[in-house]
Design a protein that fits this description.
Blueprint lengths: L1 E2 L2 E2 L3 E3 L5 E4 L10 E4 L2 H9 L6 H18 L3 H12 L6 H14 L4 H41 L3 E5 L16 H8 L4 E6 L6 H13 L3 E4 L4 H6 L5 E4 L3 E3 L4 E4 L2 H11 L3 E4 L5 E2 L16 H4 E5 L5 E5 L12 E4 L6 E4 L2 E3 L3 H7 L9
Parallel strand pairs: 6-7, 6-9, 7-8, 9-12, 10-13, 12-17
Antiparallel strand pairs: 1-2, 3-4, 4-5, 10-11, 11-16, 14-15, 17-18
Helix pairs in contact: 1-2, 2-3, 2-4, 2-5, 3-4, 4-5, 5-6
């Protein structure tokens, strides 16, 4: 995507041999890049959400293995690097998928060939993610075009969290169809959930929609149901950090509540995701590990003061504890459809198997 006329991916390799990422913890107030030079740097970037979003987490993990292979390509070092990266964030299945793919490529090679092969494979994962997201955008555009014909003057879309190009390598999942619809001349407007507690909607989705020129309005997380009751939402579209083989969607906490409100008001609810986000080993969403993050993300908030300084302030009493579970699971019965790089399908085992007959069915 472009910011002030300059094209950016969220992650790329440099001529000096580093891996450069956009530091998303500094957005929306500063566009800053950070160089990752070791596997520890990559793990820190994932853990602290310098990079975030399931596809980008996977891409960063792949480059983390490449950095590890360059430092020491022996089996034990690569295994330790994989364990370090795997431990950073438990919910997004793209992380384990990328590590498994890197292992499968490198395990068959002599150590002296692994560094170059790892770098090439990480770059291939990134390039594939861009094309998958582009395809998700095209399939989602068909959905939005049909809904726009019914909506009339403007297609109002509600999102939750950030599933745009900042969550992927480029384009995004849930936002790729939005960008394509906007570029095709379809009058779209996006209701952007702020997405407490980390405010990825307010800080990241609003930032990139604004950079692309897409009309949008930031709203409090709890306003979505009211907007649906008033007929001001024509569709909901979200991303996914892990989708089971039965079509249950794990995404940023609060997604389930949006799906319930959409179901009650007859509003179509879609999740957009690539193959790497589908966990074919699971049927039930209750088996997905849900990440518990620092309570400080709930008790404090960071923003820019009137004086122009980036400051963090406390929101709750000193004596009040907080619980910060980062994800919830939306049952398949509440999902109108899954938008993937291979097309749109029902949120079900049969629907996914129709698009992915080459993938194994989940274990009963």
């Amino acid at each position: 995507m472009r910011i002030s006329g300059t094209h950016y991916r969220t992650i790329w390799s440099t001529d000096s041999g580093a891996v450069r990422v956009i530091d998303q913890s500094r957005l929306p107030f500063e566009l800053v890049t950070l160089d990752l030079e070791t596997v520890a740097d990559a793990a820190h970037a994932i853990r602290t959400m310098v990079v975030r979003g399931a596809p980008l987490i996977g891409a960063t993990a792949a480059y983390g293995i490449a950095l590890a292979a360059r430092a020491d390509p022996c089996d034990s070092h690569l295994a330790e690097a994989a364990r370090t990266l795997q431990a950073t964030r438990p919910t997004a299945v793209n992380l384990a998928w990328a590590l498994r793919r890197m292992h499968n490529v490198l395990a068959e090679l002599e150590p002296h060939r692994r560094a170059d092969a790892a770098w090439h494979e990480a770059a291939a994962i990134c390039d594939a993610d861009v094309e998958q997201c582009r395809s998700i955008g095209r399939h989602g555009l068909d959905v939005m075009r049909a809904l726009a014909a019914k909506a009339g003057a403007r297609l109002n879309i509600l999102t939750h969290c950030n599933a745009g190009w900042l969550a992927c390598v480029d384009w995004g999942t849930a936002l790729a169809p939005v960008y394509m619809a906007h570029d095709a001349g379809i009058p779209v407007h996006v209701w952007v959930d702020e997405t407490r507690p980390r405010n990825q909607g307010a800080a990241l989705t609003a930032f990139e929609l604004g950079a692309h020129g897409v009309p949008h309005t930031v709203v409090a997380d709890n306003l979505g149901g009211h907007l649906m009751q008033r007929g001001q939402v024509d569709m909901v579209i979200v991303g996914s950090d892990r989708t089971t083989a039965a079509g249950e969607v794990c995404n940023k906490v609060g997604t389930y509540l949006k799906a319930l409100a959409a179901h009650d008001n007859g509003v179509p609810f879609y999740a957009a995701l690539p193959l790497s986000t589908i966990d074919w080993s699971l049927e039930a969403g209750e088996a997905i590990p849900i990440e518990e993050r620092s309570p400080q993300e709930v008790t404090h908030i960071t923003g820019r003061s009137a004086a122009g300084r980036i400051e963090t302030v406390r929101l709750v009493p000193e004596s009040s504890p907080a619980l910060n579970l980062a994800f919830d699971v939306t049952p398949a019965r509440l999902v109108t459809g899954l938008i993937t790089e291979r097309g749109v399908c029902a949120a079900s085992r049969a629907g996914l198997q129709r698009l992915y007959p080459d993938q194994p069915a989940a274990v009963e």
